[in-house]
Amino acid sequence: MKALKIGITCYPTVGGSGVVATELGKRLAEKGHEIHFITSSLPFRLERAYANIHFHEVEVNQYQIFRYPPYDLTLASKMAEVTEMYGLDLLHVHYAVPHAVSAALAKDMSGGNVKVMTTLHGTDITVLAHDPSLQNIIRYGINRSDKVTAVSRFLVNQTRDQLDIARRMEAIYNFVPPNISVPANAHAIRQRYGIKDEEDVIVHMSNFRPVKRVEDVVRAFRYIRQAKPSKLLLIGDGQERHSIEKLVEAEGLQDDALFLGNQSSIYELLSLADVMLLLSEKESFGLTALEAMAVGVPVIGTNIGGLPEVVRDGETGMICPVYDYKAAAEAALELLNDKAMHRRMAHAAKARAFSQFNSDTIVTKYENLYAEMLELP
Ligand code: GMT
């Protein structure tokens, strides 16, 4: 297809939507498109320089007259400025609030030719759309977009029902690269973390928000460790970290639950694990589950949101009732105690990650939607 000029706006800090938006920008750049990130800071996964990736920082001035700095308006102005200066074909924004609304404004400001695609990631619908003061503006952002996608079928349905949206929305799943390399010396790395040969490794990775229910992960781990020698690797950081550290101490697990904080070599760390626990109460997709599956780690997940679309119950892991950490622990133990089942699920997890969530296929789906939106031949 012809090379496009694409503006991308996302939350650039640690989080699945920022990861997906940045990885999408990188893949599109590799396919020859010109990418313009219009964000409040450099997206954290943009580690190396690409000649056809530009970064435009949205800087909000703190004038005294403003009680609240108007980020949304400054973003709209910057989007309009970049659209005009570089002749953008489209703005692809991640999250309805405020990004879709700012993009609608930018489109009006820059003459109305630029197209707007909005990708919904979850929190804007599963949390913010419950707030009556935001419902109308979220609906407006969605309805003013030329195309709308969501990261799971669950999220498409939830958006339709919750906001009474009649327009067409497409589910386009999140993705992982097809060429992930994991270290051959996993055993040596496990030793570096003090993991003994006979120990199983359970991993959890998230931003430690309350919806991630990290306390259930710790409680499930307590059961697992009573039955088997094991270690828990906790990757990530966030508002709940301190209370989780306290819980780990109260449960006497401090020698076996390792807090690794935010990490960049996530595939290397995930590949050390035997099973992932993702016991969230809200999850429109569950990118970390997919990242674990991609390196052959089966996932124990909860029966909420889009997670069952990623983790196939009994095939690539197991799905348990939300809040039932005992059931999660029992599922993990069943898997860890049955080597043949573990091998089968690890293999199926990896195969599913690459067949259903391969970046090559998913990025092409976005390109096809861009072409449709721009009415390209
Ligand atoms: O889950 C979070 O707290 C972060 C949030 C985000 O904005 O990155 O994640 C959402 O988007 C991810 C990427 O599409 C999804 O994998 C997560 O499931 C989704 N989180 C929720 O729905 C709670």
UniProtKB/TrEMBL annotation:
* Coiled-coil zones: none
Where are the bilayer-spanning segments?
none
In this chain the Glycosyl transferase family domain maps to 188-351
Q: What is this protein called?
A: N-acetyl-alpha-D-glucosaminyl L-malate synthase BshA
Locate the Glycosyltransferase subfamily 4-like N-terminal domain: which residues?
A: 14-178
What GO terms are given for molecular function?
glycosyltransferase activity
Pfam families per UniProt? Glyco_transf_4, Glycos_transf_1
Q: Which GO terms describe its biological process?
A: bacillithiol biosynthetic process
Q: Which organism is it from?
A: Salicibibacter kimchii
